[in-house]
Design goal:
Helix content: 40-55%
CATH topology of the largest domain: Arc Repressor Mutant, subunit A
CATH architecture of the largest domain: Orthogonal Bundle
Shape: globular
Oligomer: single chain
Strand order of the largest sheet: 5-4-8-7-6-9
CATH class of the largest domain: Mainly Alpha
Order of helices and strands: HHHHHHHHHHHEEEHHHHHEEHEEEEHH
Length: about 500
């Protein structure tokens, strides 16, 4: 068998690389500790006695599941007669250790979680040839998954990096907040909904005139004439909830934020994030929004629909704006989802620990969310005029969610804002009795067809898949790419004779 070379470990900070606060890879650190301990002929019990630490804690450290204190690492290094830097070396201590690390990391990733298979512990009893074969199989699975998303890979990776950046800063950009506040105050805004006239005044003060035309290019939402100081907009709101005020403010934002022509897809996406944030900060200025939200929180009556109506924006815009302000200004962690009626995640944000489905690159766009989540359960109710409330038990905790459904040219969609159970007390709808349980990413939760349906229809179904329209998403894999087997089998069973 040809020697297998495990792929290099992901960089610290990537979605698949757990690390210490100084960037050291925990799995590699643990294997170096284990390698040094066994080389010194010490058991976990013996080492634990000498460093005054429980063997169970040392085992967690060696398996990369607990970050050790620096003082404990120094004690371990002293007992083992090693410089501390030897334990912190980012390279695996041996080829065998490199294989163990590769297998451990592969089994912690989302690709393996979606297989629904038991993990194999890479213990010393596992023969090296078997370990090589397992790592080789995981590498090939990862290669094929990455190959399937090769075309939009640059965009997906850049989008994932932006999402993680927003998550790290609680989706709050103070520089845009202050800039937007100054501009709308200068244009005469004092509170309530930002009027079209105020937007026009803001544009005029920056040297632009807003014009509405019927013949915009199909691929453009707006066009700015820098030479003549004109911003061209459509005569009415475009599909998808983008109001004319938002379109005008986004066009203005490119000038205000001094954007240059993007030189890469990553730069293009960053500019989109910045202009969207700036427009939202103008439409719902912080100095007006925060007192409104604080009052509702004191009354334990926070509601996206009230926030939406108070500032005259769409439900989605209000929900997204809440992600900017809730954590930093109200102390509430939360998550946001826009999900299509097919279950595909169009846009998502979280800083409350909810685990979104993701592909091997860490991208979430186009991934199917659990059928038990409120964002999908809401499609099955008859009353779509009001928000739908639900508690959901998940592997990362219990969350309360508020969901509003809507429809556009691309079909029905849902907008969800959710918080951990402890923070539900601040929101209207917290008294709901609706409670669901989700065990995703375990495929037995909702991704697999019922066993009896699979036995009856596997091999007998031949659906024609709809074209997948999500630009950032790879085509979901399956017997028929883009087709949900569980839904197809259930459909066939409902219509089968007898």
């Amino acid at each position: 068998m040809a020697e297998h070379r495990p792929r290099r470990s992901p960089a610290a900070g990537s979605p698949d690389a757990p690390g210490t606060t100084d960037g050291t890879d925990l799995i590699t650190l643990g294997r170096r500790v284990r390698h040094a301990r066994t080389s010194a002929g010490l058991t976990l019990d013996r080492l634990g006695e000498q460093v005054d630490t429980a063997p169970s804690l040392l085992s967690l450290i060696e398996n990369g599941r607990r970050e050790p204190k620096l003082s404990l690492l120094r004690s371990i290094a002293t007992v083992l007669g090693l410089p501390l830097n030897d334990l912190l070396d980012p390279e695996p201590p041996s080829r065998r250790a490199a294989l163990e690390i590769a297998l451990d990391r592969a089994q912690r990733g989302p690709l393996f979680a979606g297989l629904g298979l038991p993990s194999v512990r890479p213990s010393q009893k596992l023969p090296t040839p078997v370990l090589e074969q397992l790592v080789g199989l995981h590498d090939e699975l990862a290669r094929r998954a990455e190959e399937a998303i090769a075309t939009p890979e640059e965009a997906r990776r850049a989008n994932t990096e932006l999402r993680l950046e927003r998550q790290a800063r609680d989706n709050y950009y103070p520089q845009f907040e202050h800039l937007a506040e100054d501009l709308v105050r200068d244009a005469g805004y004092t509170g309530g909904a930002l009027t079209h006239r105020t937007v026009a005044v803001l544009a005029e003060r920056l040297g632009f005139t807003i014009l509405h035309v019927n013949d915009l290019p199909r691929s453009a939402r707006s066009v700015t004439d820098l030479h003549n100081g004109r911003i061209y907009l459509p005569p009415a709101s475009v599909p998808g909830g983008h109001g004319l005020r938002s379109l005008a403010l986004q066009a203005i934002a490119h000038r205000v934020l001094e954007h240059e022509r993007p030189r890469s897809y990553a730069e293009f996406l960053r500019q989109r994030v910045e202009i969207t944030y700036f427009a939202a900060a103008c439409l719902v200025p912080q100095f007006a929004a925060v007192p409104f939200l604080e009052d509702r929180k004191r009354e334990r009556d926070l509601a996206v629909e009230d926030f939406r109506d108070a500032f005259g924006v769409t439900h989605e815009a209000a929900a997204m704006r809440l992600t900017n302000l809730a954590t930093v200004r109200l102390g509430i962690p939360l998550h946001f989802l826009r999900v299509g009626d097919d279950g595909a995640l169009f846009r998502g944000y979280e800083n409350d620990g909810l685990r979104f489905p993701q592909d091997p690159t860490g991208a979430i766009e186009g991934q199917l969310v659990c059928r038990r989540w409120a964002s999908r359960e809401a499609f099955d109710r008859r009353d779509v005029a009001t928000e739908y409330y639900q508690y959901t038990d998940t592997p990362t905790g219990t969350y309360w969610c508020s969901t509003q459904t809507g429809s556009g040219d691309t079909g029905a969609f849902s907008i969800t804002v959710g918080v951990p159970y402890a923070h539900a007390k601040w929101f209207r709808g917290r008294d709901t009795r609706v409670r669901k349980m989700s065990t995703c990413p375990d495929p037995a939760c909702c991704a697999r067809p019922a066993p009896e349906l699979a036995r009856r229809w596997s091999g007998a179904a031949w659906p024609s898949a709809r074209m997948h329209q999500q630009v950032l998403a790879a085509l979901p894999r399956g017997a028929f790419p883009g087709v949900d087997d569980a839904e197809v089998y259930a459909f066939l069973d409902r219509h089968a004779p007898g």
